[in-house]
Write a structure and sequence with these properties.
Layout (H helix, E strand, L loop, with lengths): L41 H6 L7 H14 L12 E4 L5 H4 L15 H10 L2 H12 L11 H33 L2 E6 L2 E6 L8 E4 L8 E7 L5 E5 L1 H4 L4 E5 L2 H4 L12 E5 L11 E6 L6 E6 L4 E2 L4 E2 L4 E7 L5 H4 L10 H27 L6 H11 L7 H18 L8 E2 L11 E6 L6 E11 L4 E3 L3 H15 L3 H10 L8 H14 L4 E4 L5 E4 L3 H13 L1 E6 L3 E6 L5 E10 L7 E8 L5 E7 L1 H4 L9 H10 L2 E11 L1 H16 L4 H13 L4 E12 L3 H10 L3 E5 L4 H10 L8 E5 L5 H12 L4 E6 H10 L1 H8 L4 E5 L3 H15 L2 E6 L5 H6 L2 E5 L6 H5 L2 E3 L4 H41 L11 H6 L5 H5 L9 H6 L4 H5 L6 H24 L5 H23 L5 H20 L6 H4 L2 H28 L9
Parallel strand pairs: 15-27, 15-31, 27-30, 28-29, 29-30, 31-32, 32-33
Antiparallel strand pairs: 1-8, 2-3, 2-4, 4-13, 5-11, 5-13, 6-7, 6-12, 8-9, 9-10, 14-33, 16-17, 16-26, 18-19, 20-21, 21-22, 22-23, 23-24, 24-25, 25-26
Helix pairs in contact: 4-6, 5-6, 10-11, 10-29, 12-29, 13-15, 15-16, 18-22, 19-20, 24-25, 29-34, 29-35, 34-35, 34-38, 35-38
Length: 1079
């Protein structure tokens, strides 16, 4: 049982404390919620016996914040609340139950969107340029030529924001207007969700969304239970059992709730969805005595969960912003890709180039008169150097990449949740992966059972079946007598093998939180939070002891050998948690009236609870080395006096409002967890996902350094690392474990420095010691290793490691996981990938990319990542080149005409240049590919070049800058040399040569032609030629239709572009790219 169920499946919720010494300081569970949730309720943190010394510290820290920062405005203070039934003032006191996910409203939309847009350097610069045209001294050309492109860019972006926010508004309106029935003294009323208030009694039907946080008062089930689906709240796909308030469930009818005199106390609203403390106080109508019943999280229905069975009545305790769902809605920091950061840097360089060029032009003419006015005029003339359309082109390109990824049939089910990051997939240096459910299937199968003197594996399981059948058949005639005799000796004498096997199989069939559910078509399925649980229950069914039925108060088993049904009363259940690493249940056998406490859990905690033995640690280690997940099973018979003592003390602890968990824990440890009889150890196998071996091998060949972060023990993790080929054949494994002081850390790091090509395996405690005392030294060494396995790793440690690697190496880090415990790591990474798995959708929903299996990331990175990065790099450089070349032509033109700031191209020419005349061919570069898919996947070594960032660097930028200077200068100088009598001919010759040059340059840059590229080139050329007739101001058709015009344009275009073709051929001949050797 790797992870915490957190489903309050049955009867009593009772967190244990972890007795393992190491866990006093470190949280080492791989639970889905161990550190992930907001987490632990303040009361829970104070109450754990392990943290008893922290209680004063917590209080002191709270006081410090209040005393030291009185001038800081604190958030709205949350207080506990007492809500009477049928209160008249319930409408006014608490926050309204309105769902608001919109970013804007009618008033704030325009100001906020404009602010967000003009924070971007490109947009702000062009706004200032456009506004400068209202100053007469700075006016150059037509105002619309400056406002046109800016307005187009803003229109596209604002329209996208408006559409997104409108969709959010529609979702909010739909949710807020959903009708619900409320129970009132005047009868049933239908009210929209937004009108529900604290204190309302809401009637819920099957498959209906729960609109506010409620206490479950009654259900249609006689036993007061119902199931809810929580996948929209915590991402878990299993159903959770919830219990009605016992005294209200016993009322004869729903209408009787109207006559109830009582009130509900609820603790202050907080984020932890797995914690709630409350009481229901009411007056007994018969005796007139006030009675109080404890309420815990098992009595709650949280917002956005769905009622999965029957119907129910809930009492609203929190609404709107006070609900758990809203309080847990966080907006993680927007991730910005490295390519976007690099382009922002280049934009600033371009601005410096523009400023330097403007000052130079004025300088050549002499700084006399109003020279600064001329500087500004030149800045406006050269404004196209900074391409305003670049951001739009890149955003549209990212959208194309996202659609290509989602439509790839080889990786079906892949979802792009963050469309701004596809280029990042092509530059990953480190891959950090979860183990269970990510590298493995989370598809469990019980492979081994060890009972001290006996061990059973898959090929001998039939012996267990025969022993079990024999045990039940032998005990049939005198069931009660034999059962009493067997339990009575409590393991202190030798017993028949059959009865020992019966004990452990029966324990496994009873000690769990699995509930059998019959589907619509009569099929029986098992619902549980952990796949381990389901695997074990399925195994007991195969062995001949099947779970038939279960509800709040009873469990029914069927003996396959005899057909007999065994009934048990569930007295208490203590669910599995990440802190306790174990679960327990108290059962009363209806046939013998015996009360038994069963417990199962991780060996690290169970070894301190069970009776002394000399084989447990060794066998657990052996199973772990085989890659099996171990679970220790034990039991304790409780006498009537023992149980009554426990029940009385436990009820007292449950009613306490302060330190409730600590008091319940004290009772558990005092009465139950002493001297348990060890029944045996189970070994469950988690199979590797399909294609994991090949995927890890390919990624390692691609130059990625791979880390596996898991909550499992060292032996299991090491075994999975070897079997998954995370550790290659020739690599040694260097293990660091159980370090206690900094001196040991230094010694281990010294040893590790000499082992460059090995796999490091380190446990959570040692890892934390390294990070606390020698973080830089440890990261220096570890980041150079090809593979690292971190075991017993908490979610907080996973996220911390991610951030440290990012900061230390400055490389792009990709994290992949499938459970809620991986969310922190995924959000901390440059790129987060979530796998839709059996643990639910929480990781998938929080990730930037969602996949259905681990092997899909090979194509996602090596193919789609490569294409996205290469294409965006080429597209951005080409858009920059397009702006530079026309600015160089403007500079040459001004220089030849006495450095006068006169515009070469105006009006529709300057607007059309970046749009209809060049946009389609340039944007078609998003379909280019330098190598075929087969080559990219067959030779993952090609990926190493991408991580160096050579496709877009200062070197390539300045290369394109020089190309722009050459081409712009050549076109303008030749146009001047071939000057005709009228000025209009210079414009038509140079602009036509410029357009043809750009079309040829696009063709020069294309590696693999696509039909859309061909169409874009041809259609653009036809549009340009056709527009000549429509723009007589700029084109004299009588001259354009002459041979003089044709040959002059042809000469200018050839001079500007042919040398680049020759240079490209020479480079390919003598210094070809690495991929050309493979094609």
């Amino acid at each position: 049982m790797r992870r915490e169920s957190r489903s309050i499946e049955l009867r009593k919720l009772m967190p244990f404390s972890d007795r393992a010494g190491s866990s006093k300081k470190y949280r080492t569970s791989d639970s889905i919620h161990s550190d992930e949730d907001p987490l632990i309720d303040e009361e829970l943190a104070e109450s754990s016996p392990l943290t008893g010394t922290r209680r004063p510290t917590t209080k002191k820290r709270r006081t410090f914040k209040l005393n030291c920062w009185p001038f800081v405005r604190s958030p709205r203070k949350q207080n506990p609340r007492t809500i009477p039934f049928h209160a008249n003032d319930k409408q006014k006191k608490y926050t309204p139950n309105i769902i608001v996910n919109q970013k804007y409203n009618i008033i704030t939309f325009i100001p906020l969107v404009l602010f967000e847009q003009f924070v971007v350097f490109f947009n702000l610069y062009f706004l200032l340029v456009a506004l400068s045209q209202f100053v007469p001294a700075l006016k150059i050309g037509y105002i619309f030529t400056y406002f046109g492109p800016l307005c187009f860019v803003l229109l596209v972006t604002i329209s996208k924001e408006a559409m997104d926010d409108f969709q959010r508004y529609k979702r909010d309106k739909e949710a807020n207007s959903q009708l619900y029935q409320t129970l009132t003294p005047s009868g049933l009323r239908h009210v929209p969700s937004s009108k529900i208030r604290v204190g309302d009694m809401v009637i819920l039907q099957k498959d209906q969304r729960i609109p506010a946080d409620m206490i479950l008062l009654r259900t249609t089930e006689d036993n007061g239970s119902c199931f809810i689906r929580t996948d929209q709240l915590d991402g878990e796909t299993d159903w959770k059992l919830r219990l009605a308030v016992p005294s209200l469930q016993r009322l004869p009818a729903d209408d009787s709730l109207i006559q109830v005199r009582g009130e509900i106390y609820a603790d202050a609203p907080h984020k932890d969805i797995h914690s709630f403390i409350g009481t229901f106080t009411h007056v007994d109508e018969e005796t007139g005595v006030e009675q109080r019943e404890p309420l815990s999280v098992e009595n709650t229905l949280w917002t956005n969960t769905v009622l999965a069975s029957g119907s129910a009545i809930g009492f609203v305790i929190y609404t709107g912003k006070d609900t758990r769902a809203v309080m847990n809605t966080n907006h993680p920091k927007t991730k910005v890709g490295l390519l976007d950061t690099e382009i922002n840097r280049l934009a600033k360089i371009l601005f410096i180039v523009t400023l330097a060029l403007s000052v130079t032009m004025v300088g050549f003419n002499g700084f006399h008169g109003l020279w600064y006015i001329y500087v500004f005029r030149f800045l406006i003339l050269f404004s196209s150097i900074i391409p305003i359309s670049l951001r739009v082109n890149l955003d549209m390109g990212k959208t194309v990449y996202a659609r290509q990824i989602e439509n790839d049939e080889d990786i079906q089910g892949t979802i792009v949740r963050t469309s701004t990051l596809p280029e990042e997939l092509g530059r990953i240096g480190y891959l950090l992966s979860d183990k269970t459910g990510t590298l493995t299937k989370n598809d469990m199968e019980l492979k081994k059972l060890h009972m001290g003197t006996m061990s059973y594996s898959l090929d001998t399981m039939d012996e267990i079946m025969s022993h079990l059948a024999s045990a039940f058949e032998d005990q049939e005639p005198g069931l009660i007598q034999t059962g009493t005799g067997v339990v009575g000796i409590s393991g202190k004498g030798r017993r028949n093998i059959s009865f020992r096997i019966k004990d452990i199989v029966q324990a496994l069939a009873l000690c769990h939180n699995v509930t059998p559910v019959t589907g619509d078509h009569g099929e029986l399925t098992y619902q549980a939070s952990s796949p381990d649980e389901v695997a074990i229950v399925k195994w007991t069914e195969q062995m001949g002891l099947a779970l038939v039925a279960r509800d709040v108060s009873k469990i029914q088993l069927r003996v396959e050998a005899t057909g007999a049904l065994l009934d048990y009363d569930v007295l208490h259940i203590f669910p599995f948690t990440s802190e306790t690493k174990r679960m327990g249940i108290i059962i009363r056998d209806r046939q013998t009236n015996e009360v038994t406490f069963y417990e199962k859990g991780a060996d690290v905690v169970m070894s301190t609870i069970v009776q002394y033995n000399d084989w447990l640690d060794e066998e657990c280690g052996n199973m772990a080395r085989e890659g099996l997940r171990t679970l220790v099973v034990a039991k304790k018979r409780l006498s009537v006096d023992n149980y009554e003592e426990f029940r009385t003390k436990f009820q007292e602890a449950e009613l306490s409002l302060h330190d409730r968990n600590a008091r319940k824990q004290a009772v558990i440890e005092e009465v139950l967890e002493t001297d348990l009889e060890l029944l045996g150890v189970t070994g469950v196998e988690d199979k590797l996902q399909d294609g994991v071996k090949n995927t890890l091998e390919q990624l390692r060949n691609a130059g990625l350094r791979i880390w596996m972060l898991t909550g499992d023990k060292i032996e299991t993790a090491t075994c999975i690392a070897v079997s998954s080929k995370l550790v290659s054949r020739n690599q040694n494994i260097h293990q660091i474990a159980k370090l206690k002081n900094p001196v040991d850390v230094l010694n281990e790091l010294d040893n590790l420095r000499s082992k460059v090509d090995c796999c490091l395996v380190i446990d959570g405690e040692s890892l934390q010691l390294c990070l606390d005392h020698f973080q830089d030294e440890f990261v220096d060494v570890a980041t150079l290793l090809p593979a690292v396995v971190c075991c017993r790793c908490s979610p907080t440690q996973k996220a911390e490691i991610t951030r440290i690697i990012r900061h230390h190496t400055q490389k792009r880090v990709l994290c992949i996981g499938d459970g809620g415990n991986d969310v922190s790591m995924i959000q901390a990474a440059n790129v987060g990938i979530g796998i839709v798995g059996k643990e639910g959708r929480q990781a998938s929903l929080a990730a930037d990319f969602s996949v259905t299996q681990f092997s899909h990331i090979t194509k996602l990175m090596l193919w789609h990542g490569r294409n996205s990065y290469k294409r965006s790099a080429k597209l951005s450089q080409f858009v920059i080149h397009r702006g530079l070349i026309i600015s160089v032509m403007q500079a040459v033109f001004s220089a030849l005409f006495y450095f006068a700031p006169i515009a070469l191209y105006q009006g529709m020419l300057i607007v059309g240049y970046a749009t209809v005349y060049t946009m389609a061919p340039v944007f078609s570069l998003v379909l280019d590919q330098d190598v075929s898919e087969e080559i990219a996947l067959l030779y993952p070594e090609l990926y190493k070049d991408l991580t160096k960032g050579r496709s877009l660097s200062y070197r390539t930028f300045f290369t394109w800058l020089l190309i722009s200077v050459y081409q712009g200068g050549a076109i303008m100088v030749l146009s001047i040399i071939l000057f005709e009598n009228e000025f209009i001919h210079i414009v038509s010759i140079s602009f036509t040569a410029l357009i043809f040059n750009e079309l040829l340059m696009v063709a020069l840059e294309i590696n693999t032609w696509h039909r859309i590229m061909v169409i874009a080139e041809i259609v653009t050329m036809l549009i340009y030629i056709g527009s000549m007739w429509l723009l007589p101001t700029y084109f004299d058709m009588s001259f354009i239709l002459t041979t003089r015009f044709v040959w002059k344009v042809a000469v200018i275009t050839a001079v500007s572009s042919l040398p680049l073709y020759v240079a490209k051929l020479i480079k390919r001949r003598y210094a070809p790219p690495s991929y050309t050797k493979l094609t």
